[in-house]
């Protein structure tokens, strides 16, 4: 399976971590969508020329949630990461939609400002705080974000929360989120090595923008 990605992108990180959890290999292809040659090559596969993009035996998928749920449904030994039970799955889906529509959206909007050396507004930071309060509530109700065990919702949300490092965001007020991070990362094979590679890639990206 070819996987077109950038390690600094939280959505791109999700499928890599899901693959690690499933014990499957991805043929990782670092992709710079700002490079005309690489962008044109990707457009031949994905007309939106976005990353991540997965190619599995000629089947092309993009959008991170579509990719991670596909991987689980095709390669998972069971449905634990993306439960088939409609009620449980609805909660997993709600957390995924909360991530992409609220939490990650707010985080990435602020990161874009910081990279341009601009300051986010008080309103933006307050909205982010409210979203973090919601996640704190979710992982207070149960040990994981959507169920009593690890799901794709945890893995996708992990990427968003990890991206807060770009902002040097203080997680001390969020004791349950901190415990949840430790719980989730403890279940992903080779996470420490992955985290080191991700942080190095992030530092290199930030340096390239200065």
UniProtKB/TrEMBL annotation:
<feature type="domain" description="GST N-terminal">
    <location>
        <begin position="1"/>
        <end position="79"/>
    </location>
</feature>
<keyword id="KW-0808">Transferase</keyword>
<dbReference type="GO" id="GO:0006749">
    <property type="term" value="P:glutathione metabolic process"/>
</dbReference>
<dbReference type="GO" id="GO:0004364">
    <property type="term" value="F:glutathione transferase activity"/>
</dbReference>
<protein>
    <recommendedName>
        <fullName>glutathione transferase</fullName>
        <ecNumber>2.5.1.18</ecNumber>
    </recommendedName>
</protein>
<dbReference type="InterPro" id="IPR040079">
    <property type="entry name" value="Glutathione_S-Trfase"/>
</dbReference>
<dbReference type="InterPro" id="IPR010987">
    <property type="entry name" value="Glutathione-S-Trfase_C-like"/>
</dbReference>
<dbReference type="Pfam" id="PF13417">
    <property type="entry name" value="GST_N_3"/>
</dbReference>
<dbReference type="InterPro" id="IPR004045">
    <property type="entry name" value="Glutathione_S-Trfase_N"/>
</dbReference>
<feature type="domain" description="GST C-terminal">
    <location>
        <begin position="85"/>
        <end position="204"/>
    </location>
</feature>
<dbReference type="InterPro" id="IPR004046">
    <property type="entry name" value="GST_C"/>
</dbReference>
<dbReference type="Pfam" id="PF00043">
    <property type="entry name" value="GST_C"/>
</dbReference>
<comment type="subunit">
    <text>Homodimer.</text>
</comment>
<dbReference type="InterPro" id="IPR036282">
    <property type="entry name" value="Glutathione-S-Trfase_C_sf"/>
</dbReference>
<comment type="similarity">
    <text>Belongs to the GST superfamily. Theta family.</text>
</comment>
<dbReference type="InterPro" id="IPR036249">
    <property type="entry name" value="Thioredoxin-like_sf"/>
</dbReference>
